[in-house]
Amino acid sequence: MSSTSCYIQVGTECMHYLRVGNGSRLLLIFHGYGHDAHALRIFEPYLTTEYTCLFFDLPHHGKSSWKEYVNFTSENLQQLVADLMQVNKVEKISLLGYSIGGRVCLSIVNQIPDRIDRVTLLASDGLRVDNYYRFFTRSGFGKRIFNHMLTEPGQYHKLLVVLKKGKIVHEKRYKFAMHYLSDEATRQQLRKVWPSLAELTPDIAALQQTIKKYKVPMVIFMGRYDKIIPPSVAEKFKQGLDSVQVVTLDTGHRIYDAGNVKMMAETLLH
């Protein structure tokens, strides 16, 4: 299906999105780290009759114009959603998000729970507090280390090896760090993206209370072999939340493919 390339002002920056479909319901769709608006268009055939789908490029991804050191704030996100709802003349929205895009969806749920129709999350970030991420993006000391690590990575390789051998750093954290330290382009994107989205980290307890109070319908798909965000995180998050369903699939973090997107899309069609 053909798409329309659109831009919308977000604070001082400009966010790009693709508009697809002509359904009466509005669906906002957010991709994962390192992807762009096209990544989740695999869902189009199943959603664009009932929904008008907006596929976003997050800051420092795709065609969005976003300056370094400018954060995507909660206020920015709330205004973005309000503007889109007004333009599209809807009272409620649905949300679809993968990985870091799931964290954006959770932030929206926390802001306007009474305006949420349905939410489907895929291997979602934001279901637990990540102390490493908080340290590197929210504390002054952590920010300095983070920037130095990404501009002068050589000396940190040896340190990580020592920390892994001493079991101070878990194997998966070690592999994550080594992956992002090994390539210049990868380091530069991480240096821009992580801080820009740091404010979109909802308080877990408050979010759970909000979901419970407003009975927000939510389905969370998790990969049984996901080493980045294991399914136990989602199971813990949903405790006491009757409107939240967790579905575990035999996949890793890259949870969606041609074989299961129809099933995932159907959770948004009720």
Structural account:
This protein is of the alpha/beta class. It has two domains: 4-129 and 201-268, Alpha/Beta hydrolase fold, catalytic domain (Rossmann fold), CATH 3.40.50.1820; 131-196, no CATH class. It is 41% helix and 19% strand. The protein has helices at 44-47, 74-88, 100-111, 131-138, 140-151, 154-165, 171-181, 184-196, 204-214, 231-237, 261-265, and strands spanning 4-10, 13-20, 25-30, 51-56, 93-98, 116-122, 218-223, 244-249. Strands 1-2-4-3-5-6-7-8 form an eight-stranded mixed sheet, with helices on one face. Strand 1 and strand 2 (13-20) form a beta hairpin. Helix 2 crosses helix 3 (100-111). The two termini are 23 Å apart. The model has no long low-confidence stretch (mean pLDDT 92).
Main traits of this protein?
270 residues; 41% helix; 11 helices; Rossmann fold; alpha/beta; 2 domains; eight-stranded mixed beta sheet; single chain
Number of helices: 11
CATH topology of the largest domain: Rossmann fold
Mean pLDDT: 92
Distance between the termini: 23 Å
β-strand percent reads 15-25%
Give the topology.
Blueprint: E1 4-10, E2 13-20, E3 25-30, H1 44-47, E4 51-56, H2 74-88, E5 93-98, H3 100-111, E6 116-122, H4 131-138, H5 140-151, H6 154-165, H7 171-181, H8 184-196, H9 204-214, E7 218-223, H10 231-237, E8 244-249, H11 261-265
Helix pairs in contact: 2-3, 3-9, 4-5, 5-8, 6-7
